[in-house]
Amino acid sequence: MLTDADVDSLLAGRHADPFGRLGLHADDGGRLWVRVLLPTAEAVALLDAGSGKRIVELEHRRGGFFEAQVPRRKHRFDYRLAVRWAGGGEGAEGVYADPYNFYPQLSDDELKALAEGRNFRPYLSLGAHLVQYGDVSGVRFAVWAPNARRVSVVGGFNNWDGRRHPMRLRHQAGVWEIFVPHAGEGDLYKFEIVSGNGTLLPLKADPYARRAQLRPDTASIVAPLPDVTPLPRQRERANRRESAISVYEVHAASWRRSLSAEFPTWDELAEQLPAYVADMGFTHLQLMPISEHPFDGSWGYQTLGLYAPSARFGPPEGFARFVKACHDAGLGLLLDWVPAHFPADAHGMAEFDGTRIYEYADPKEGFHRDWNTLIYNFGRTEVRQFLIGSARYWIERWGVDGLRVDAVASMLYRDYSRPAGEWIPNIRGGRENLEAISMLREMNEHVGEIAGAITVAEESTSFPGVSAPTYTGGLGFHYKWNMGWMNDTLRYMAEDPINRRWHHDKMTFGLIYAFSENFMLPISHDEVVHGKGSMLSKMPGDDWQKFANLRAYYGFMWGHPGKKLLFMGQEFAQRNEWNHAEGLPWGLLEDDRHAGVQRLVRDLNMLYREHSALHRLDCEGGGFEWISAHDAEHSIYAWVRRDGTGRMVIVVCNMTPVPREGYSLGVPDGVTAWREALNTDSAYYGGSNMGNGVAAAGLPVQAVPAHGKRLSITINLPPLATVFFVPI
């Protein structure tokens, strides 16, 4: 018989080795005993698994602890437990496999790889996995909690009682595991953890959960592992830097508000969103974070579920259909991914096992002042695997094209948003976070192994080589947001046109460094929140001038080197700044001024895609040449875009409300006539319709020098407008 001390410890949920006591064991004399802990059971009998015959009734000693010596058996055998539950709880009676009759779940090789930082698909080992052993189906649970005294999995399958399924500690990696027979898909679960000092912690959700409850509930949900989903073959070419890449950024919950529910389902989004984005000429759709997060107001940027599509939009399988719908529409899909920080909610990763294993231990390294969040310990192998595994998971298992990585600048520098004395230098005495830099490089190398997949960095500093290959010392991102371009040009556009002559360089300065990275030009959600107003409201002047300024700016942006990104609502000149709790004001499209801006963005996308000169050398200096960069007096800019094979497009911007008729524009050699391909002042877009006609003969090239060139054309330059010209 088990000692009273052992029984007391098991009943208290404090036993150091439950697998050494529960289940089938031989005593010192070689006699077999079976022991179970089922607190709500009334009676338990031992059955032969093969024949179903009853072998022995277990004695109920106290508190739901049952045991019996097994008669006439000398060797281990497969058995079942016939249980009669008190008060009819969990069903009046049932026959069950015993979780303590199963061998360790994870191999020594798996554990060694996890401990040494060599397992970059850790989600295959950790988390909840549906498995089958013979005729017994169930769930294998595994969780990393190296400093815990005891970890139990709790859920609906055991009345949330931590005494029922204490897990086995695999000391090699600090991983706790158990197979729970008869648990299944859809079961709720969490981990009950006793810290090393004996404190019972708040129940913890599974960091590797693939599905979670809808907030405010916080349990994890057993879900199948998605199948490996390769990118469609055509996506590899579509994501290259010589391709046209124009991104539509979306907050899935507020793009269109459902009339029948708080959030649209993935299937509802799949029916409308990809078709709209494709019709608008965008090449890619980017979703703000859709991994599970507790607070709507964080827009997903304070995530606690880096492996789980948010329950806000329905079951995970709906997301798979949404991804397919995007690809069927010819779109790439990018996900906003947040490895920089996580919130300190009690059910999450903060002090997960009673110690700071996911976050840096010292608040000077591990706490984000800006967002009141915790910073991952990028130097810890298990944390690096968690993050890199998440990046691979979304691409390999869901088939998305890539990730836009949030807040990279905050990861790169230890003094980010910290005053002197409130940060810890690196081992070299510098301010760079060497561990984060190493992790990002490693992550990008792993993503780079996946055909066609890409990563995009939101990085706002001058850190060198963000989009350079890791083998040259870069971080390995494919693209980097050009935050400097965005800030400079928006400051310029906010100026009254009469004052723009004094700020002319804000529009040209970006070309000094435009080809130092593979840049993406972002007008993201960050520019239309927190009192910044909408894009339209940023523009000066009366209503006509606001629309004209915005159209001219979009023309400038689409003609400028760099991939494009525009946040939802800005394609039709939303008047108020974005509110995540409301749907977009689609009714504005009944106003032809707003509809005109939408038509312009569609046509800019089509022009950008149609003309290789506007995209093929987006990231190379050979694709750009100034015609007029210094005409501050008239606030005019003009340049040539090239594709390296002889194709060209000329872009001209007039950033004042003064029309310029008969304007002489210097042009490159080799073309006899040019035609107007797009004019943001067209009446079709809501403009004054001043332009250069669409005659087949176009605008003839004249042997009249202008702008330092020996040839020129004479054009009409509309007020507050951008005009594109292509050779005939």
Beta content: 25-35%
Number of helices: 15
Stretches where pLDDT falls below 50 for ≥5 residues?
none
Helical residues, percent: 10-25%
Distance between the termini: 96 Å
Rg (CA only): 31 Å
Instruction: Please describe the biggest sheet, giving its number of strands, its sense, and whether it closes into a barrel.
Output: 8 strands, parallel, barrel
List the defining traits of the structure above.
single chain; 728 residues; alpha+beta; eight-stranded parallel β-barrel; 35 strands
Q: What does this molecule look like?
A:
- The chain has 728 residues and is of the alpha+beta class.
- It is 21% helix and 25% strand.
- It contains 15 helices and 35 strands.
- It has an 8-stranded parallel barrel, surrounded by 5 helices.
- Strand 5 and strand 6 (65-69) form a beta hairpin.
- Helix 4 (266-279) runs parallel beside helix 5, helix 7 runs parallel beside helix 9 and helix 14 runs parallel beside helix 15.
- The longest helix has 19 residues, at 592-610.
- The chain is elongated and about 110 Å long.
- The model has no long low-confidence stretch (mean pLDDT 96).
How are the SSEs ordered, and which strands pair?
Layout: H1 4-11, E1 23-26, E2 32-37, E3 41-48, E4 54-57, E5 59-62, E6 65-69, E7 79-85, E8 93-96, H2 108-116, E9 127-133, E10 136-144, E11 150-155, E12 168-170, E13 175-181, E14 188-194, E15 220-221, H3 233-238, E16 246-250, H4 266-279, E17 284-287, E18 291-292, E19 305-309, H5 316-328, E20 332-337, H6 363-366, E21 367-368, E22 373-374, H7 381-398, E23 402-405, H8 408-412, H9 434-448, E24 454-457, E25 479-481, H10 483-494, H11 505-508, H12 510-513, E26 519-523, H13 535-538, H14 543-559, E27 563-567, H15 592-610, E28 624-631, E29 636-642, E30 648-654, E31 660-667, E32 673-679, E33 699-700, E34 711-717, E35 721-727
Helix pairs in contact: 4-5, 7-9, 14-15
